[in-house]
Amino acid sequence: MSGAGVADWAVIGVPILAAALCAGAVALLLPWLKSSALAHPVDRSSHREPTPQGGGLGVVFSTLTVVWLAVAVAGPLPADALALLWALTGAAGLLTLVGLVDDIHGLSPGPRLFAQLLAVGLVVLLVPSDTRLISALPLWVERACLVVLGVWFVNLVNFMDGIDWMTVAEVVPITAAIAIFGIGGIVPPVVTLVALALLGAMLGFAPFNRPVARLFLGDAGSLPVGLVLGWLLLLLAINGQIAAALLLPLYYLADASITLLLRIRRGETPWEAHRTHFYQRAVAGGLTVPAVVARVFATNVALAALATVSVMTRTALASVLCVVGGAVLVGVLLAHFAKAQR
Predict the structure, then answer these.
(1) Of 27, 13, 17, which Cα lies nearest the Cα of 58?
(2) Spatial CA neighbour of 260 closest among 126, 177, 158, 132
(3) Which residues share a beta bridge with 52?
């Protein structure tokens, strides 16, 4: 067993099994998705040919299946960890179903938002009440804020899934870093297992989504993947690593949030599809999709390294310096993408 209580075999076996299961599930689903869930290109699309979406079904199925298999093999979890995992499973399943309906038939913003509130609310509700991020706030205020932030994060990941491999470039460094923290005993075993499984599942999905993609995650993937990532980051923060939890998704947070504020300022409808994220503007400005994704991936790896430094040093000054360094890195990348458009 590792220091975090995750069996040594799980560190390698969980991501490998999740990758294989995801690849197999996606291969089986692909013919059906081609006939039932095609994303047709429109003016705001980044793709030029009708492409099946809904590949997230394989990602979510393999992630949750492998986690529960690992739990069954390794032995029972503590009651609070088991409750967290059941909540995550139910919430991710709900968002996968809602996302699939949206991929096939389309949904208005109202039902989507209601489902997201239910899913995030369920996850937040099952977080133990004795674990706090801001103890100065009443518990209900803190939890309400977490629900709002969680819904924003779910949508943020959905918004940012706009070109091939973008979500892979985000999820892989984040989950790999959290898994490493788990192996070092920084986060509980259940967090480590979920991170390892999602890491493997995204790697299994990656060959189908490589530019030019044969398959998209779709809302059936981006919504629950956003939920799982948010869950991992929340539990990382609750375990005392707030700087790391901020650093790991910092590029997504910055690109999506700044873009949203700019769109609101221009009087645009926030939830309508568009191509004005910084990475999309870079592609429109002449950078290739692989070049953009490579830059995002490299930045995310650097952010993961800064997060690791903040975890290892365990001092407030080091954490602040790491966050500042991460903000500079992300700012440079956003400026580079904005410049590419000109």
Answers:
(1) 27
(2) 158
(3) 38
126, amino acid identity: L
Handedness of CA 28, 29, 34, 36 (dihedral sign): positive
Cα dist from 51 to 168, 202, 211, whole Å: 18, 19, 12
Where b means 16+ CB within 10 Å and e means fewer, 9-33 reads ebbebbbebbbbbbbebbeebbeeb
pLDDT by residue (tens digit) across 181-209? Answer: 999 999 999 999 999 999 999 999 999 99
Question: pTM here?
Answer: 0.94
What residue ranges do the domains of the chain occupy?
8-240
Structure tokens at 73: 């093999």
- Of 6-10, 143-147, 271-275, 283-287, least confident by mean pLDDT is 271-275
Whether the upstream peptide bond of residue 171 has omega within 30° of 0, thus cis, is: no
Q: d(Cα 92, Cα 128) in Å, to the nearest integer?
A: 19
Residue that has been written with the tokens 């699939």 in this structure: 100
- Give dist(CA 205, CA 259) in Å, integer: 27
Whether 289 and 283 have beta carbons less than 8 Å apart is answered as yes
